[in-house]
Specification:
With 383 residues, the protein is an alpha/beta fold. The protein has 3 domains: 15-103; 170-229 and 241-278, Alpha-Beta Plaits (2-Layer Sandwich); 289-381, no CATH class. The protein is built from 11 helices and 5 strands, in the order H-H-H-H-H-E-H-E-E-H-E-E-H-H-H-H. Strand 3 (220-224), helix 7 (245-256) and strand 4 form a beta-alpha-beta unit. The chain is elongated and about 110 Å long. The N and C termini lie far apart (102 Å).
Length: 383
């Protein structure tokens, strides 16, 4: 007889065969597993939402099982409450696991080289106690171990504005971007957008673009327009390409500020636009004065080589001679003045005096040759 018929109907369906119970079980595991999968693989916000959506599904299955399996009302209620507490505890554990995975994607201060510094020897093992150097005491050495490169305030902000504004020839438009799931990188991108705009760069759409890179990295990445390659190289390989003047200016400024800088290609980048994309903030070791002088030596060596192009432009009375010589001179002046590496002040005075006399020189080729000779002396002295 049909269960919808008259008297003598079929017995009710057991609770463990009902669709609501199995629907609750399926919904709970579907959302919980999906939440953990997304949360532990780079999408913490989505993962946490999905994880907690699983709660009502699990609660429904728990309620149906306790009501159907336990006849004693008090015991049934106790089972529902106990099961609900266990369910919430399980979801809290998953939530904390996602938070921990998200926070561990950025470098942690405890992983820095402070822990591997050699311990001082006991006083009795040394024949004579040496006084600490006033110029570089151990405390100062430890303080300079860690640097937050995205923190451009005070002197670092002034230096970045000067170094990013050394280009006189036409500039590319800058597209500022960040990794979409990293709020800290997007905040940093916004800060740098304002500084680059203040330095005279045109900003694409006047906003920060949120991106989803296939291979995320920390620090800053310069993205330039590239051809569409079809050789399908593995991720650790790439193609060589020449940087234009704007890419060189940006690369020099960011690397000088100790911001790890990489390069990438984008065939969809508009012509005349470069991408300046930010990942999570790395924690780097700050330079000592000696290391800064070494970096200045390397930079001036490169600029000494590029003087050949300026010299060539001036040898044929090129219309760009004056602009190229002034840009070359201004770049050298900026890095010498803001190196903060104990550079002899007379060097900068000599260089600026030579540059000023070159502006008045009727023979621009002679002016660049005189500056080139003086720069070679600076490079030799910095070795």
């Amino acid at each position: 007889m049909s269960q919808f018929g008259g008297g003598g109907g079929m017995p009710p369906t057991p609770w463990y065969k009902e669709n609501p119970f199995w629907g609750g079980i399926s919904g709970f595991f579907t959302f919980a597993i999906a939440g953990l999968g997304f949360g532990l693989n780079g999408y913490p916000t989505l993962g946490r939402w999905l994880l907690w959506v699983a709660a009502p599904w699990g609660t429904m299955a728990l309620w149906l099982s306790c009501k159907g399996a336990i006849r004693n009302k008090r015991v049934s209620i106790a089972g529902i409450v106990g099961g609900f507490v266990f369910l919430i505890t399980l979801l809290f554990w998953g939530d904390r696991s996602i938070k921990h995975a998200a926070s561990s994607s950025a470098p942690q201060p405890v992983a820095q080289p402070i822990a591997v510094q050699p311990l001082p020897q006991p006083a009795q093992s040394q024949p004579k106690t040496q006084p600490q150097s006033a110029e570089n005491p151990p405390a100062e050495a430890q303080r300079r171990l860690l640097l937050k490169p995205y923190n451009l305030t005070g002197r670092r902000r002034d230096i970045f504005l000067v170094l990013s504004n050394t280009q006189l020839e036409p500039r590319d438009t800058i597209r500022v971007g960040c990794i979409g799931w990293s709020e800290s990188s997007c905040v940093a991108a916004g800060s740098f957008l304002l500084l680059l705009s203040q330095a005279g760069w045109k900003i694409d759409s006047n906003r920060v673009f949120r991106l989803e890179p296939s291979i995320p990295s920390d620090g800053m990445t310069i993205a330039a327009r590239t051809p569409v390659y079809t050789d399908n190289l593995p991720p650790h390989l790439g193609h060589w390409g020449a940087m234009d003047a704007s890419q060189i200016t940006i690369w020099r400024a960011f690397t000088w500020m100790q911001i790890p800088t990489g390069v990438s290609g984008d065939p969809n980048m508009p012509e005349g636009t470069i991408g300046v994309y930010f990942g999570p903030e790395p924690t780097v070791q700050s330079r000592s004065a000696g290391e800064t002088r070494k970096q200045l030596h390397d930079l001036l060596t490169v600029l000494l080589v590029t003087s050949v192009a300026v010299e060539k432009a001036c040898s044929v009375a090129d219309d760009t001679c004056t602009m190229q010589r002034r840009q070359w001179t201004q770049t050298i002046s900026a890095y010498m003045e803001y190196c903060d590496c104990g550079l002899n002040a007379a060097w900068l005075t000599k260089w600026k005096s030579l540059a000023a006399s070159g502006d008045l020189e009727n023979d621009p080729l002679k002016a660049i040759q005189d500056q080139k000779q003086q720069l070679a002396k600076f490079v030799a002295a910095l070795k």
